[in-house]
């Protein structure tokens, strides 16, 4: 499967632009993972780091779930890969933690995020406060934060991919 990345419109309204950039960065992470073996996708960057492409995708599934479902929509959606006892659990891959499962979970959370976001306007405030900060967030803030989160981790994915097979690019 080849992921098609679409540049966001340069003249769209604000919401379309924010959604476009978020989708662009989601697609960028998918592109960085394409064409690699299960072993490569699980390969950690540089010891002692446990950062891997599969781990990044698992992390982003939890990030999507947390901001859109738990904060914006106040859903009772427990974390997928981490716990209080293991706050970096998304990067601790077991034998049963496959790329196929991580990718499917991530895509499902993206779908759920889109469904939640469609119910709100950009200025609407979340239905729940963030558990750690106690703050309430507008959908606009969440979109902006998610773009930043993906952009930062796509930089990590660039470095991982280059280490794995020499591929570079945006």
List the helices and strands and how they pair.
Layout: H1 14-33, H2 38-42, H3 53-72, H4 99-118, H5 139-165
Helix pairs in contact: 1-5, 3-4, 3-5
Structure characterization notes:
- By secondary structure, this protein is an all-alpha fold.
- It has one domain: dinb family like domain (Four Helix Bundle (Hemerythrin (Met), subunit A)).
- Helices cover 54% and strands 0% of the residues.
- It contains 5 helices and no strands.
- It has helices spanning 14-33, 38-42, 53-72, 99-118, 139-165.
- It starts with 13 loop residues before the first helix and ends in a 5-residue tail after the last helix.
- The model has no long low-confidence stretch (mean pLDDT 94).
- The unreliable regions are none
Shape: globular
Rounded to the nearest angstrom, the distance between the terminal CA atoms is 18 Å
Count of individual helical segments: 5
Number of strands: 0
Looking at the overall shape, the CATH architecture is Up-down Bundle
Q: Within the CATH hierarchy, at the fold level, what is the topology?
A: Four Helix Bundle (Hemerythrin (Met), subunit A)
Using only CA atoms, what is the Rg? 16 Å
Average residue-wise pLDDT: 94
Order of helices and strands: HHHHH
Please write the CATH class name: Mainly Alpha
Helix coverage percent of residues? 40-55%
Strand content: under 5%
Report the CATH superfamily: dinb family like domain
Class per helix and strand makeup:
mainly alpha
